[in-house]
UniProtKB/TrEMBL annotation:
Name of protein: Glutamate-1-semialdehyde 2,1-aminomutase
Cofactor(s) this protein requires: pyridoxal 5'-phosphate
Annotated family: Belongs to the class-III pyridoxal-phosphate-dependent aminotransferase family.
Keywords recorded for this protein, A-Z: Pyridoxal phosphate
InterPro entries: Aminotrans_3 (IPR005814), PyrdxlP-dep_Trfase (IPR015424), PyrdxlP-dep_Trfase_major (IPR015421), PyrdxlP-dep_Trfase_small (IPR015422)
Record GO terms (molecular function): pyridoxal phosphate binding; transaminase activity
Signal peptide: none
Amino acid sequence: MLAKDVLVEEFIVSNPRSQKAFERAQEILPGGNTRSVFNSFPFPLVLESGCGCEVTSLDGKVYTDFSSDFTAALYGHSNPVIYDSLREIFSTGFALGGVVEKEAELGEIIRKRLPSMGKIRFCNSGTEANMYALATALVFTGRKKILVFDRGYHGGTMSFPDKGNPLNLPHDFIIGKFDSIEGTQPLLNADIAAIIVEPLQAAGGVRPASKEFLAFLRKAADELHAILIFDECVTSRLHFNGMQGALGVIPDMTVVGKYMGGGLPFGAFGGREDIMNLYDPYSQGIENTLFHSGTFNGNIFTLNAAIAASKLVTAEALLRLNNLGDRLRASAHAIMEASGFEDMYFTGHGSEIGVHFRGDDAVTVRESFFYYLLRHGFMIGFRGFICLNLLHTDESVDRLLQCIQRFVDEYQN
């Protein structure tokens, strides 16, 4: 049987520069970084560069990247199309401090993909976009309660893990049971201003919601005159028209972020014109208009990268990627069944895959799997997360599946 301690010790010995960089970072950054999802023990791998679907560590080791920056690196690393778009900016100037035409261009691109976003405003992250979408819904309805769901994640200040989140904003949240009509129905009441849901929970275990559940929420919002918000920061990459288009359930507002910025900081929220016109002084009058500003909202770097990146996101490209992810998930299931290995199972949809572990040794198996993959040149999320990007191929997926098979064989023997 594979010993986790042996794998971890091998990792430590093989990555002295990562360890040294981590120890330096700990002196100034609590936890050694400013993105907690990267935490792993005894220390995280420190990366130096990336190209295609590979990343290179500070210690010079090359890994096939199956985390894809937790869905944000849809285009792979150092994509030449995006690289060229950023080079263009140096000839025109940046941080111009005024309106640029590219804001409207990107807005039109997003609305073409997600028609629920009739009017759009930009910001700098999905967290920020979710905050503004909810605040807008509260103002529009004049109510205070927000229906959310267990294990949902709408940013670091609006997440609902089983253990709770002391950093949550002090909204009046009602926590429903994700993908459960029976568990949510009794919570509905006329004081609800907004219902916010991820069509697939990424941080919450890569759990997809059923069409029936989302349609139930659509009907509930209509009956309550509440605002239904889809957080599609992650799921908009699972279909050209987002999961709302794939399932035919259209929200009142939508939030996007992550990959849509082409790898740069980005967020956007939008929705029905009557809702979003709360930000329009030309139709509402200045005294009746909500004020939303931000120094880097619609910055020219992100706009140019996002517009260039949008040309890479076609319906055909996303279908190929989802088919590849479905094959990976199904084949991994088949490996577990054929091996009689019940300690691991897989969830998800298309190109996003959750790896789950159960039993008394669940943590040990999870960490052993993570370090075993690193030993053989594959990087996934430490929590058990796999995400494909547009530069993954059948060959790279086959190699990962072969490694999963070897892990199961060695762990059991």
